[in-house]
Amino acid sequence: MLLNLSSVEEYAKAGKARLLAAATEKRVSHLPDLPTIAGFKTSVWFGSWGPGKMPPDLLAKIHADVAKALDHPETTKFFGNNSFERVDLSPQDVGKLIQSDLEHWSALIKSVGVKID
After folding, report:
1. Which residue of 43, 74, 89, 108 has the fewest C-beta atoms within 10 A of its own C-beta?
2. In this structure, is the dihedral angle defined by the CA atoms of residues 37, 42, 46 and 49, taken in order, positive or negative?
3. How confident is the model over 89-117, as a mean pLDDT?
4. 36: which strand partners?
5. Is pLDDT above 80 for 71?
6. Helix-then-strand count for the chain, H and E
7. At 68, is the pLDDT very low, low, confident or very high (cuts 50, 70, 90)?
8. 56-71 and 73-81 are packed helices; what angle lies between their axes, rounded to 10 degrees?
9. Which residues contact 22 (CB under 8 A, 6 or more apart)?
């Protein structure tokens, strides 16, 4: 099965499931012995959105405030307990991530011939 790591990791720790590989480009930082699937990547990510053409100083403040919240010990603990990995991206890098995801999933959908009924 292909599942989010956070939904199955506790079963693996308890010996009730076996993790075969991560669907990531790089190894999972807290599971360095877990191999990756060559040529296959997928991830779930979360972000904050605002209106287009937001003033740069407001965008910078929001970015800094979110980073401060993510630095909070309870947030760090929550991420660790749920196998989440914090990735800090600039607004420009988020745009690149979205474009990359669009290209990746569009190509995959096209290659397998998925059609919407």
Report:
1. 74
2. positive
3. 90
4. 22
5. yes
6. 4, 0
7. very high
8. 70
9. 5, 28, 31, 34, 35, 36, 37
| Amino acid letter, 21 | A
Q: Which residue reads 């970015």 in tokens? A: 63
Dist. CA 63–CA 78, nearest whole Å: 20
pLDDT of residue 49: 87
Q: How many whole angstroms from its chain centre is CA 73?
A: 20
CA neighbor of 88 nearest in space, from 60, 54, 63 = 63
3-state DSSP assignment of residue 67: helix
**What is the DSSP-derived secondary structure letter of residue 88?**
-
Tokens of 90: 């600039």
Question: Measuring CA to CA, which residue among 74, 5, 75, 76 is closest to residue 36?
Answer: 5
What CA–CA distance (Å, rounded) separates 68 from 60?
A: 12
